[in-house]
Amino acid sequence: MSSLEFNNNNNNNYTDCDRNKIKEVRDEIPSFEELYNISEILKAISDPLRLKILYLLKKEELCACYITSTLDKPQSTVSHHLSILKKSQIVKWRKMGKWTYFSLSNPRIIEHIENIIKIDSDNCFNNNINSSNINNAKVCCGSSEPTDESKVENPKVPSKEIAIKDLKHFERIAKDLGIVDVGYTKIPKKIFSNNNDLDYSNAIVITKEIPDEIIQEPIGANGYDLNQAFYKLFGNLTYKLSDFLRKKGIQTQVAHPKGNLIDLSKLAQDACIGCIGKSNLLITPKLGPNLKIGAIFTSAENLPFSKENNHNWIKNYCKKCNNCIKHCRMDSLIEKENEGIVEIKDNCIGCTEACTLCIEVCPFYKKGYKKIKEKQNKLVKML
Ligand code: SF4
Ligand code: SF4
Predict the structure, then answer these.
(1) GO MF terms on file (predicted)?
(2) Could you tell me the pTM of the whole model?
C-alpha cells in the first residue's frame, strides 16, 4: 500500500513515513522570496516584443538604436520594454559615449525559455490559436479580460427586478467610491469584442477620473505602472459594486475597465453618459475625456435606461478641432476621409506607456465641457 492510499484510508492521520516524505518534498520547494523572484522574471519575459529583444541579443551585445531600428517600433516603446528587462536583471547594459549597449545577463536564457516551451508545446500553441480567434476585434490596447475577482457568488435564481431603494443605495455607494457617472443601457450585441453569448442584456456603466499623477507622468515605464495600478483599483471597485448587487439577488458579470469583453466607450455612449470624440475617447460633461470606463452586466431589467443622448453635438465640434489627431506623436489616430470615423493604430502607446496626450490637448479637458457648450450655443444663435 502506498503512503497516499494509507492516508486516504486513515482519515489523514500521518505516519512518520508520511511526515518524512512531506518534509522531503517541502525542502525541495524554493523559499517564498526565490519563488517571488522567479515569478517576476517570468512576468518580465511574457511579452512577444521583449522575447524578440532577447532573441536579438542571443549572439551579441547590441546598441539600443540598433535594437530600435531592427524591431521597427517607436523608440519610446523599445525603451519601455528594455527598462522592464533591465529592472528584472535579465539584460545588462553599459554606456559608451552617447550610446547604450545591451546584452543578456545569462547567455543561456533563450535555451531555458525554449525548454519551458517544450514542456507542453501542444497545449500551449492550441490555446494561443483559440484565443486569437476569439479576440478578433481590437478594443483599446486589446488586453484580455482579467480574471474575475468577485467575492460574492452569483445568486442561483436571478432576480429580474431591483428595488428602487437598492438602486439608490448602489448609486450612493458608487459615489462614495469615487465613481463619477452611472448610466444604464441595453447591451447592443454588435459591440461585443468576442463572440460572447451573454445571459444578460442590460448594463450599468460607470466612469472614474484618471488621477492627475498619471496625466502628469511622462510617457514610459513608470506611467505604465501607475496606469496598471489605476486599472486594478477601478477594477476592484467594479467588483465591489457588482458584489453589492449579487447580495440583493441580482445576477451580474463585470466588464473590467482594462478588459476587452466589450467596447466600453460605445457602451457608455449608449448609456448617454457622453459622446465619443475623434480621439476615440468618451467625452462627458463632468470629466471631459479624462476618464476610464467599467461596466456591470446584470439580470435586473427595471433599470432607468437613458433614452436621449444630449452630447452628440460634440461630434460636430470635433469636425473642426482635430487637436488630438494633430498632436499624436505616434500618428496613431487615422481619420477615414469623409466618414468622420477615427481608427486607432496598433502603435498607440496609451495603455503600454500611459500616453495621455490626446486627453491633454483636448479642449474638453483644458476648458471644460460647460464653457465649450456655452460658446457653441452662442455660435448657433448667431447663425
Ligand atoms: S496621443 Fe498617445 S494615447 Fe492618444 S492616440 Fe496618440 S499615442 Fe495613443
Ligand atoms: S481634441 Fe478635438 S477633435 Fe479630438 S476629441 Fe477633443 S475635441 Fe474632438
Answers:
(1) DNA binding; DNA-binding transcription factor activity
(2) 0.66
